[in-house]
Design a protein that fits this description.
By secondary structure, the chain is mainly beta. The chain is built from five helices and 59 strands. The chain has three domains: about 325 residues, Pectate Lyase C-like (3 Solenoid); about 100 residues, Immunoglobulin-like (Sandwich), CATH 2.60.40; about 80 residues, Immunoglobulins (Immunoglobulin-like). It is elongated, with a radius of gyration of 31 Å.
Length: about 575
């Protein structure tokens, strides 16, 4: 299908408080979990006492932390069932008293031998904080030292984190929340019994409370990553999540070993080192023409930072070269992506695939054609709720978000970066052929030669539809220049707007009142508006073609999409 598409375009000639006092409402606070009570003895006991301590409830009693002390010698604690003990009052000391529910009294013994009661408090049995203790080991024969172990709740929040010791062991106690899963990450573990450094991650949620949660890696396959051999693994003998976890750039690159599997990121990825990979060619795109990616990748809101791809003579270039699967919730930030044809900040070619809730920032450069800030070519695919903010540069057929939208859908998305090219240059989409562009906008400057539009460069075909969208950037070119669309050839442009106060020049002549450079299709309710008419509450009055109930929202600036709020 891609080759057929290339031939079609080639025939046309076309080559993104001290002593903070929480004495207020102590009764209520003691009922809540993890109540923190800080007492300033100087304020609450006598003028001769000068110290601050922090008393906090735990799962089975209280802890006492000495924050400030000028004249307290020791602390006496009387607890339930006749418990009594004496503790040092040195600054920084933390004392834990685990005597369960009941009454606790803390007494300060001053330097002169006098005693002052600091506080008396009662912990009812129902107010004790619940806790879970997680222990286990990480091994690949040998034991893995230095692995990061994190306890997560059901929302993916990290409750506690620790590092495995030299025996591969870890232990931590999580209070007040239930552990939903345990994630273990190995970043370059090196050992004489291993042939190469090891990079791995895995998630377990099948464990039984109170039993060890172990990670016994069984896969030590060697993979070429960036020109060096490393061990990359997601496989342990214990039962794990059915979705492969990715926690480092090495695992991300190793997705090429199984392009049909399901993956998810479990933390942000530092990709800055890729600039020196593969003799400075950088990261190798995931999937290509002979073997596309047809699995799923869910970044879960985590970002990939500093990715470099420098392959100016290669096609199908992006984090993912060719996608026939599902890519969602992923951010590629501060990237530097260079290829020949079919280049995108996230995906080179989205071939009947799905890209949603994703974004790219940085610089995307194509030495040839069909280049987009997020996706180079969207061929019968879906792109929704996504954006690009980086600069995009190429020869021809170039868009701030998508280079070519061929019988695909682009909806509820936007681009903000500058776009520079030759022909068929658009702030959002360069060339829309029988595709649908809806409920989207572009705000970046657009510069080209011919067929240049603030939103779409060239809209073609009876099914080529541009609707409920707007453009606000400067547009400059030689011929066929439009504030909204450069050329509308048999397509439809409707319910859309452009800013007439932007600089829109055709061969140096102001054409800011022209939404379309050339039109041989259908036009319905498109209008050029002044900046003030498109901003704040004025937008809702003047942009009548927009759905401000379900899709759009006004802002202090131009309208934004509801999902951006």
């Amino acid at each position: 299908m891609i080759n057929k598409y290339k031939e079609k375009l080639e025939n046309r000639g076309v080559s993104p408080v001290i002593g903070v006092i929480l004495l207020v409402a102590v009764t209520v606070a003691l009922v809540a979990l993890a109540t923190v009570i800080v007492f300033n003895i100087g304020d609450n006991v006598s003028e001769s006492t000068d110290a601050t301590i922090n008393i906090q409830e735990t799962s089975n009693g209280i802890t006492i932390e000495i924050i400030r002390n000028n004249n307290v010698d020791t602390l006496l604690v009387n607890g339930p069932n006749g418990f009594t003990d004496e503790f040092d009052a040195d600054i920084g000391q933390i004392h834990t008293i685990n005597e369960g529910s009941g009454s606790y009294t803390v007494v300060a013994v001053l330097d002169d031998g006098s005693e002052q009661t600091v506080e008396s408090t009662s912990i009812s049995e129902g107010s004790e904080t619940e806790s879970e203790t997680a222990t286990g080991t990480a091994s690949v024969n040998p034991a893995i030292e230095g692995a990061t172990v994190e306890a997560l709740d059901s929302n993916g929040n990290v409750l506690e984190s620790t590092i495995t010791n030299e025996d591969g062991e870890y232990a931590f106690t999580v209070e007040e929340s239930n552990i939903d899963s345990i994630v273990l990450v190995v970043d370059g573990f090196d050992h004489e019994e291993l042939s190469h450094p090891m990079y791995a991650s895995v998630e377990r949620s099948d464990f039984t409370e109170g039993e060890p949660i172990d990670f016994s890696f069984t896969d030590t396959s060697v993979v070429d990553v960036g020109g060096e051999d490393v061990i990359v693994s997601n496989t342990v003998s214990e039962e794990t999540s059915t979705v492969n976890t990715i926690a480092n750039i090495e695992q991300l690159q190793a997705m090429n070993e199984d392009l049909g599997d399901d993956y998810k990121l479990v933390r942000d990825i530092d990709a800055s080192g890729t600039s020196e990979w593969n003799d400075n060619k950088g990261f190798e795109p995931i999937g290509g023409l002979s073997n596309s990616f047809d699995g799923s990748l869910d970044s879960q809101g985590y970002e990939i930072e500093g990715l470099t791809i420098n392959r100016p003579t290669e096609e199908d270039v992006g984090l993912i070269g060719i996608n026939e699967g599902t890519v969602e919730n992923i951010g590629v930030v501060n990237a530097d992506i260079t290829g020949d044809n079919l280049v995108g900040g996230l995906v080179g070619v989205n071939d009947d695939g799905t890209v949603s809730e994703s974004y790219a920032t940085g610089t995307v450069t194509g030495e040839g054609n069909w280049v987009g800030g997020l996706v180079g070519v969207n061929n019968n695919g879906d792109i929704t709720e996504s954006y690009s903010t980086g600069s995009v540069n190429s020869e021809n057929v170039i868009g701030g978000l998508v280079g070519v939208n061929d019988d695909g859908t682009v909806s509820e998305s936007y681009a903000e970066g500058s776009v520079t090219g030759g022909s068929e240059v658009g702030g959002l989409v360069g060339y829309n052929i029988d595709g649908e562009v809806s409920e989207s906008y572009a705000e970046g400057s657009v510069t080209g030669g011919s067929e240049v539009g603030g939103l779409v460069g060239f809209n073609q075909g009876l099914s080529g539809d541009v609707s409920e969208s707007y453009a606000t950037g400067d547009v400059t070119g030689d011929t066929d220049i439009g504030g909204l669309v450069g050329v509308n050839d048999d397509g439809t442009v409707s319910e859309s707007y452009w800013d007439t106060e932007s600089e829109i020049l055709e061969g140096g002549t102001d054409v800011s009142t022209d939404g379309l450079g050339i039109n041989s299709g259908i036009v319905d309710n498109i209008e050029g508006l002044e900046t003030i008419e498109m901003q704040s509450s004025e937008a809702e009055s003047n942009m009548s073609g927009f759905d401000f109930t379900n899709t759009w929202s006004t802002s202090d600036d131009y309208p934004i999409l509801e999902w951006q709020e």
